[in-house]
Design brief:
Blueprint: E1 3-12, H1 25-41, E2 44-50, E3 53-61, H2 62-73, E4 78-89, E5 100-102, H3 106-114, H4 127-139, H5 149-161, H6 165-187
Parallel strand pairs: 2-5
Antiparallel strand pairs: 1-3, 1-4, 2-3
Length: 188
């Protein structure tokens, strides 16, 4: 049997919900199912979700990978499913992962910055960007610094508007002090 590797990108069709423990709930369900099913078919790889888009890398027996990819392409949670890399593979490179999940971490932020991207848009990835992302998935640790997806979007807009988190924190602290003083003066 022949091994292949396949990377694809897609857009999520669901409305993003607040992340629980750093993982969007719809993505968490996909991961649980993937890990269970991929272990049975000996498919390995990794998944990244951010900015409403998926990037997934798969390795395994050709028939099993193609069957999985067909299911993904027909899954109502994905649209614009696009193959980015598909080729024979001589040996597995993700030996211990039925489906590794890459959290939204500083590594991903560095990847975006290094490549001049303001958001994660894998449907436009070139071959070198795909290989970079595959390497990032391979090297990442699930125990890395996790950032809530909504917090990231918020921090991006604040950074672009020139408002820092420290500035907002100072304003909130000042308002709390003023509120406490007003409250204290009305109770005496």
């Amino acid at each position: 049997m022949s091994l292949i590797r396949l990377a694809y990108a897609s857009e999520a069709t669901f409305n993003e919900k607040p992340a629980e423990q750093g993982v969007e709930p719809n993505v968490a369900r996909i991961l649980m199912t993937s890990r269970k099913n991929n272990a049975k078919t000996h498919i390995v790889g990794g998944l990244y979700y951010g900015d409403g888009c998926f990037f997934q890398y798969l390795e395994g027996e050709e028939d099993a990978v193609r069957e999985l990819y067909d299911r993904i392409a027909n899954d109502e949670r994905h649209r614009n499913v696009t193959t980015l890399v598909e080729e024979p593979l001589s040996a597995r490179t993700f030996t211990n992962w039925s489906m590794k999940y890459v959290p939204l971490s500083s590594d991903v932020q560095k990847f975006l910055g290094r490549n001049g991207m303001k958001s994660f848009q894998p449907l436009s990835f070139t071959r070198p960007l795909c290989e970079d992302m595959i390497q990032l998935i391979r090297d990442s640790s699930e125990q890395g610094r996790v950032v809530n997806h909504q917090d990231l979007a918020s921090s991006r807009s604040k950074a672009s508007s020139g408002v820092s988190g420290v500035g907002i924190g100072l304003v909130v602290a000042a308002l709390a002090i003023v509120g406490a003083l007003v409250y204290a003066s009305t109770t005496f």
